[in-house]
Amino acid sequence: MSFLERFLPIINHHTKRSRSWKNSRLHIFFCVGFHTLFLFATDLYASETLKIALGRFNSKLEIQSSEKLRVTDIFDQDVMPSPGKSITLKIKNDRIAAGSHSFETSALHIKSKGKLVIGEFKVDNELHLTLRSYKDKLEILAVLPVDVEAYVRGVLGHEMSPSWPIEALKAQAVVTRTFAIRQKYERETWPYHMESSILDQVYGGTSKINSRIEDAQSATYGEVLTYDHELALSVFHSTCGGTTENVEDVWVEALPYLRSRTCGYCEESPKHRWEVSFSKKGLGSLLGVRGPISKTRIKSRTDAGTARKIELRSAKSSTSLSAAHLRKKLGYQTMPSPRIDAIRSSLNKVHIRGRGFGHGLGLCQWGAKGLAEANKTYHEILDHYYTGTRTQRLYRPSAN
Predict the structure, then answer these.
(1) In 247-320, which residue ranges form alpha helices assigned H by DSSP?
(2) Rounded to 5 degrees, what angle do the CA atoms 398, 75, 62 make?
(3) How many structural domains are present in the chain?
């Protein structure tokens, strides 16, 4: 399939959803790869639809609604008569089953005129279920199709406190929207575009949506963060602890807009500075070093001054690893960030002192709060953390 053939449906999707071809101005930039195709729309009214994985179930799945449910196949044909307001599904004889009813199809749509409740989620109207093999086991994958703007509302209150300043919430809305649309096209062949957890962005359905969340979403409707006409990789984290990191110091590829920046506005965060301690024997065992740790050393530092590489030694062996790998080994909640300032030994313990919470790239959420409290606009907040980027409106609200 050619490059144009691959993206023509996207172009058609936007132009058909607009009022007319004459009233739409569609600017397209072509190079190699998706992110150099950017739809810069000034009068388009189309929003994207995302597919969010709400969970994987290999025992049973319960779905409830305040209204009657419909169970259909992918062609909207009913496949179960009168299921009522709740349904319990399970895997039986390699099929999806509800009680004694076994479905011929491996893909079901659950629909209702009311809200659907699945586990901890309360969501709008429709769920897509697929029976699939994953890691040699059958599971039911539950996916929610959701409009981007509804998705932004469902993320905001879970990634940032709804009580925080409105300009911080607006900045988070733009970042959330940009990340979501970018992920959609990076994962176009996946059965879903994003997880509903910290693996992507925390999505909580319609819970925690209030007037402040709606105001932040509607004020930034359709706005995305771009660099050189491409969707930016709009990653974010809770707390940087004073400075953000260059992306190549945490991951691999350097990006011109994810550079180390002085923050200075996140001191109120409970994770601005932290220290964790481990027994020398226990730490050695976790890291595959034979015997208790006897010596520690920071071998190199990032431009922001935090540890890049760390060496730990025992009397019998040693290991060198990145700060990010150390955090993965010790646990993301145990060690709040890979941003280590110092590592030292006492009689029986190793003490690691660091800063921040999260990977330290892009938007610092506590910093955004501080900047908003200092009367900075959301555009100024985004400019601060994403060097050289612009906010552009990809689509706008319908005039109807």
Answers:
(1) 280-286
(2) 90
(3) 3
Per-residue pLDDT tens over the stretch 347-358: 899 999 999 999
What is the C-alpha separation between 293 and 312, in angstroms, rounded?
Answer: 7
How does pLDDT run across 158-206, given as a tens digit for each residue? Answer: 999 999 999 999 999 999 999 999 999 999 999 999 999 999 999 999 8
Same domain, 297 and 345: yes
- Same domain (yes/no): 295, 343: yes
User: When comparing pLDDT for 323 and 43, which is higher?
Assistant: 323
The verdict on residue 268 lying in a domain is: no
CA-to-CA distance for 324 and 227, rounded, in angstroms? 27
Q: How confident is the model at residue 2 (pLDDT cuts 50, 70, 90)?
A: very low
Last residue of a domain, one of 334, 355, 376: 355
The Cα angle at residue 219 between residues 215 and 220, in degrees rounded to 5: 125
Same domain, 81 and 115: yes
Task: Quote the CA–CA distance of 261 and 246 in Å, as a whole number.
Answer: 8
Q: Measured between alpha carbons, how far is 391 from 399 in angstroms, rounded to an integer?
A: 22
Q: CA–CA distance from 104 to each of 73, 92, 93, 96 (Å)?
A: 10, 12, 11, 8
Q: How far apart are CA 12 and CA 18, in angstroms?
A: 10
Beta bridge partners of 115: 124
Spatial distance between the Cα atoms of 286 and 316, rounded to a whole number of angstroms = 15
Tell me the residue range of the domain where 109 lies.
50-147
Phi and psi angles of residue 275, each rounded to the nearest 5 degrees, phi first: -145, 135
pTM of structure: 0.86
Report pLDDT digits (tens) over 11-41. 344 433 333 222 333 333 333 344 444 444 4
